[in-house]
């Protein structure tokens, strides 16, 4: 299982709309609206890198109000 954190920048004023769209996906395990450089942070779980690619293509890239994402793949060091 791959766990990733995705940091998201949204067009101003569209944070709630994007948040509601993102949390519909079952791969999203946690989602937070935050202050600072990023607007939304999500934690996703996927079985493979290919599924992570699909999540980016099928979910994040289709939401027009997302301006930028940064994906951090969790390391196994924590185990």
Automatic annotation (TrEMBL):
It comes from the Archaea. GO terms for molecular function: DNA-binding transcription factor activity. Pfam families: AsnC_trans_reg. SUPFAM superfamilies: Dimeric alpha+beta barrel. Transmembrane segments: none annotated. GO terms for biological process: regulation of DNA-templated transcription. Residues 6-74 form the Transcription regulator AsnC/Lrp ligand binding domain. InterPro entries: Dimeric_a/b-barrel, Tscrpt_reg_AsnC/Lrp_C. This is Predicted transcription regulator, Lrp/AsnC family.
